[in-house]
Design a protein that fits this description.
Elements lengths: L6 H13 L2 H8 L3 H15 L4 E4 L2 E4 L1 H29 L2 E6 L1 H18 L4 E6 L13 E5 L8 E14 L1 H10 L3 H7 L2 E4 L6 H7 L10 E4 L2 H9 L4 E5 H10 L3 E2 L6 E11 L1 H4 L2 H27 L4 E2 L2 H10 L2
Parallel strand pairs: 3-4, 3-5, 7-8, 7-9, 11-12
Antiparallel strand pairs: 1-2, 5-11, 6-9, 6-10, 6-11
Helix pairs in contact: 1-2, 1-3, 1-4, 2-3
Length: 328
């Protein structure tokens, strides 16, 4: 059975190939020249090839030796970079997280000042990206992700609940009220603004409330919640969106519930996702505890806001059935 070369053999070979002499490699590696020569001899016997041409006191690589040298320098370079990253990550207060873009911009970013004030020595990097991390290939501590797609083998922890309801500008609501005789007619005539990646879509919401609309009615569709929300702010239609992402606008009155009496659907929307080995890190635990505190305060504010607008909160069994079916 063939055997792979030893790591020592590859280290000795790379040093000899780079220095051109056994004596120089031995000095660099702090071993005897005979130990280096023995390792090269064993490596050549194992591979069944000559790695060096011996010309007087100088060594030069054969074609096979050149090929192996290129491979070893590349591999050692990767290992060196990984070691530096790991060392820097271990010795510093560096935390790298990846977050869904709209959540990063509208919820997390305004709150980070509190965390930075409490931990001024931390080196924090936040990547707002729609793509989940590949934890085996990327240096990322954890993701904060929306939804419940299957994530087998990863630790998942709910952190922020969401409340979904039809939201629009006060001017658009007032226009509908002037031209419609009932909330039902308003819902039938409103222009839909769709966040196409949202868990709860307009089709689902309308069907659950037994509201029919003309199939020819136009709708505006966006793949980012922040874009859909902005169109609602602009007064062009009604968005079925999150109080988590529209909290500031709802608080200021820039956006309002269109039909508060129909309530807001509550469901667990955002979660921490990472390998279990990452979750056990102290820095990760500190940040998760902080974000859970922020989420608790946020949920209290949302409950009070919805109560002030006479908007009941309910858990939709169909939503929880869907989430259960898609959990890992």
């Amino acid at each position: 059975m063939s055997r792979d070369p030893s790591l020592n053999g590859m280290i000795y070979f790379e040093s000899v190939a780079r220095n051109g002499r056994v004596a120089r490699a031995a000095e660099e590696l702090n071993v005897s020249p005979s130990a280096v020569s023995q390792q090269i001899k064993l490596l050549e016997e194992l591979l069944g090839i000559s790695l060096f041409r011996r010309e007087k006191r100088q060594l030069s690589l054969t074609a096979e030796g050149e090929q192996l040298y290129l491979a070893t320098t590349s591999a050692f370079g990767i290992l060196h970079n990984a070691r530096q990253l790991i060392s820097r990550h271990r010795d510093s207060h560096q935390l790298i997280i990846r977050v869904s873009p709209s959540f990063a911009i509208r919820w997390l970013s305004p709150k980070l000042a509190d965390f930075i004030q409490k931990h001024p020595e931390w080196d924090l990097r936040v990547d707002a990206s729609p793509d989940p991390s590949n934890f085996e290939r990327e240096v990322v501590d954890f993701d904060i992700r929306y939804g419940h797609s299957s994530l087998a083998g990863l630790h998942c922890e709910e952190v922020v609940s969401d409340y979904i309801l039809p939201i629009c500008s006060p001017a658009y609501r007032d226009e509908l009220r002037r031209t419609c005789n009932s909330p039902l007619e308003m819902l039938q005539k409103m222009r839909l603004v769709d966040s196409i990646k949202a868990v709860i879509q307009w089709d689902n919401w309308l069907a659950r409330h037994r509201i029919t609309r003309n199939t020819q009615d136009t709708a505006l569709r966006f793949d980012r919640s922040s874009m859909a929300i902005q169109q609602a702010i602009n007064g062009v239609g009604v968005v079925l969106e999150s109080t988590t992402l529209t909290y500031d606008e709802l608080t200021s009155g820039t956006l309002v519930p269109l039909v508060p009496e129909m309530g807001a659907i509550r469901f667990p929307a955002y979660r921490i996702v990472c390998p279990s080995r990452h979750h056990s890190r102290k820095l990760v635990q500190v940040f998760i505890n902080w974000i859970l505190q922020q989420a608790e305060a946020h949920e209290s504010h949302i409950s009070r806001l919805l109560n002030e607008t006479n908007t009941p909160i309910y858990d939709d069994p169909e939503v929880f059935s869907y989430l259960s079916a898609t959990k890992p």
